[in-house]
Amino acid sequence: MPSLPDFVLVFFLIINTLLGVCTTIDLPLHYVRGLSLWEKVSHPIDAFFITLSMLLGFEALAWHSSNLFWIYCFISFITMLLTYKDEFIHQKECLPSEQVIHAIMFSCSGVSLALGAIMILLGIGKSLFFLAFIIGSIFFFLQIILNFFVKAPKIAFRNE
Question: First and final CA of the chain: distance in angstroms?
Fold first, then answer.
C-alpha cells in the first residue's frame, strides 16, 4: 500500500502530465477554428495564473511559509474560477472534440491545484512544483507567441 505522500506525488505528476498533453493537443485546435481577440488574451491569462500558482507552491515549500500557503490557496481558487470565463465562447465556437479536451483540462487543473495544497501541507514536492512552474512558463510564452506573432494558416474546415 503506498503512503499518502507517495500517492499525492505520483497523482500530481500524472494529473499534470495529462494537463500538459491536453494543452499540447488544444493548441493546434485553436488554429483549426481560429481565436477571437478575447481568447487570444484570455488563454495566456489562464496559463499565467496556473504558472503563478505553481511558483507560489514552490515558494511556500521553500520558505515553509503558512502565509504563502494561503496565498497559494487564494490564487489557486482564482485560477479555477478563471478557467470558466471562456465557456460561453467555447459552447458556440468549439467542435465537440475540443470541448472534451477543455473538460479534461479544467478537471486536471482543479485536481492539480488541490493536490498542490495537500503537498504543501505535507511538506513534499518542491521540485515537482518547480518543474510545473517551468513547463507552465513555457506554455504561457508559447501561447503569447502563437496568439500574437504567428499567423494561423487558412484551414478550410474552421468553424465559422
Answer: 52
Q: Which of 141, 124, 128 is nearest to 53 (CA)?
A: 128
Letter for the amino acid at 3?
Answer: S
Residue 88 and residue 32: Cα distance in Å, rounded? 19
pTM value?
0.92
| C-alpha cell of residue 151 | 499567423
Are 55 and 155 in contact by the 8 Å Cβ rule? The answer is no
Closest C-alpha to 101, from 41, 43, 37: 43
Please answer whether residues 83 and 106 qualify as being in contact, where contact means their C-beta atoms are separated by less than 8 angstroms: yes
C-alpha R_g of the chain:
17
Query: For 3, phi and psi rounded to 5 degrees?
Result: -75, 160
- Segment 63-95, tens digit of pLDDT: 999 999 999 999 999 999 998 888 888 888 888
